[in-house]
């Protein structure tokens, strides 16, 4: 976990350096929209004629007049305020006309949605100062995400101007905007209407629209694997889908997307797509394997460009609990959950750990001996993808393994910043600055000595 935190700290520091190097230049022509409760930013190109983009949080509104080629009527004007960005479609009239009408309605800015996945920079020949609101353009898929989310509840977000002073490193134009780059939802807790706390975790998909704050009723998909058109009524509900590795599902993904795909990455996307087509508001994908919980993803973001609902992965136990209780639920962001599962997933690189321990005393008259004459050692294979060996991380010689079903009770011990005995011994008592660390070294060393003494007695 400290490695993960250190990496993120270094990344943030590098982005601050990038931003500090660019604040004296002209405002960048592109940036990213970070939606509240979103999982991934949306890229935009900004105009050549409008006002400054502040980076404040704005509400996105979608008037009935989706083109904005004439003055808005009273109904549409009631949606627009100086704290909102208006979302309009590209076409029929010029960028200038759209920007002028949106400015006249009192909006803070304009988002134009392209009619394709290609984006251009809005251009108009106007005198400086005539249009003082910013106008940006996003891909059709990005606009669809915003519109679908707005149709369900209020949507807020920030437009963050970006720059790339070094070709391989891009960062925010303003140093104060660095914090928003890690604001996306990666995981959290499932909350119900009947429980004030939660023992159920989720990991967010890397694709789709922002997570909804409203509570949604649960329904299990039929068929449960959702590789085919759903037979159940799922409109405006959260659909639970079991993620069996169905090869036919992978094949259908290729056909539907008309692009080469990897079965183990795109089949999640296809299942969500089927639920979306049936009118679902959100999706819970159920992890059915033995490995650690991981975020559903696609190798190329383009593969999921048409997914406009949020989705997440939960464990089999969580899914069974939720379907049994049938409470409406909502998904709330908690970065610590994602941090912990990332740390657990990193252990799979260790493969299968083998640990040895002395066999218990036998009732037979003679003790079992190994080839070297000592007590027979029994080897136990620990599959770190099936169990989360929290105590192995703490340098425990004989870790007490906990099944993943017990995960909620000890989740945050993975985030415990207390140093292990090995770390303290490497630094040495005299080099420890904190009295807390010195006392911890003495305590852990004492425990280790007692354990070694007891082990030596058992071998005699």
TrEMBL record:
<dbReference type="Pfam" id="PF08561">
    <property type="entry name" value="Ribosomal_L37"/>
</dbReference>
<dbReference type="InterPro" id="IPR013870">
    <property type="entry name" value="Ribosomal_mL54"/>
</dbReference>
<feature type="domain" description="PA">
    <location>
        <begin position="216"/>
        <end position="321"/>
    </location>
</feature>
<feature type="signal peptide">
    <location>
        <begin position="1"/>
        <end position="25"/>
    </location>
</feature>
<dbReference type="InterPro" id="IPR003137">
    <property type="entry name" value="PA_domain"/>
</dbReference>
<dbReference type="InterPro" id="IPR046450">
    <property type="entry name" value="PA_dom_sf"/>
</dbReference>
<keyword id="KW-0732">Signal</keyword>
<protein>
    <recommendedName>
        <fullName>PA domain-containing protein</fullName>
    </recommendedName>
</protein>
<feature type="domain" description="PA">
    <location>
        <begin position="65"/>
        <end position="146"/>
    </location>
</feature>
<dbReference type="Pfam" id="PF02225">
    <property type="entry name" value="PA"/>
</dbReference>
<keyword id="KW-0325">Glycoprotein</keyword>
């Amino acid at each position: 976990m400290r490695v993960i935190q250190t990496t993120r700290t270094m990344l943030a520091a590098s982005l601050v350096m990038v931003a500090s190097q660019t604040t004296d230049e002209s405002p960048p022509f592109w940036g990213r929209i970070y939606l509240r409760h979103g999982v991934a930013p949306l890229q935009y190109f900004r105009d050549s004629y409008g006002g400054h983009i502040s980076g404040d949080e704005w509400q996105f509104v979608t008037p009935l007049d989706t083109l904005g080629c004439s003055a808005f009527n009273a109904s549409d004007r009631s949606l627009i305020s100086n704290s909102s960005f208006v979302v309009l479609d590209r076409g029929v009239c010029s960028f200038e006309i759209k920007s002028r009408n949106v400015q006249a309605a009192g909006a803070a800015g304009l988002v134009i949605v392209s009619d394709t996945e290609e984006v251009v920079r809005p251009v108009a020949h106007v005198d400086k100062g005539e249009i003082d609101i910013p106008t940006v353009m996003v891909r059709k898929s990005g606009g669809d995400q915003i519109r679908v989310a707005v149709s369900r509840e209020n949507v807020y977000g920030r437009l963050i101007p970006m720059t790339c002073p070094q070709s391989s490193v891009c960062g925010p134009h303003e140093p104060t905007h660095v914090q928003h780059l890690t604001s996306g939802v990666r995981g959290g807790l499932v909350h119900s209407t009947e429980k004030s706390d939660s023992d159920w975790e989720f990991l967010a998909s890397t694709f789709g629209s922002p997570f909804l704050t409203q509570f949604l009723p649960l329904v299990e998909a039929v068929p449960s694997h959702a590789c085919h058109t759903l037979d159940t009524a799922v409109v405006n509900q959260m659909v639970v889908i079991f993620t069996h590795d169905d090869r036919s599902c992978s094949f259908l993904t290729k056909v539907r997307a008309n692009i080469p795909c990897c079965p183990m990455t795109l089949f999640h996307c296809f299942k969500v797509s089927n639920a979306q087509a049936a009118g679902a508001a959100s999706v819970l994908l159920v992890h059915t394997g033995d490995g650690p919980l991981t975020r559903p993803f696609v190798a190329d973001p383009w593969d999921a460009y048409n997914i406009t609902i949020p989705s997440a992965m939960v464990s089999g136990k969580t899914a069974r609990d939720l379907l049994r209780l049938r409470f409406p639920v909502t998904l709330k962001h908690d970065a610590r959950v994602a941090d912990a599962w990332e740390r657990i997933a990193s252990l799979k690189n260790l493969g299968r750990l083998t640990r040895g321990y002395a066999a218990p005393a036998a009732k037979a008259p003679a003790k079992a001996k190994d080839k070297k004459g000592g007590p027979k050692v029994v080897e136990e294979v620990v599959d770190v993808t099936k169990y989360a060996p929290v105590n192995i991380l703490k340098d425990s010689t004989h870790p007490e393994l906990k099944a993943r079903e017990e995960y909620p009770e000890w989740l945050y011990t993975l985030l415990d910043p207390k140093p292990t005995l090995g770390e303290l011994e490497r630094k040495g008592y005299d080099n420890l600055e904190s009295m807390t660390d010195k006392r911890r070294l003495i305590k852990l060393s004492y425990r280790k000595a007692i354990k070694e003494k007891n082990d030596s007695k058992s071998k005699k």
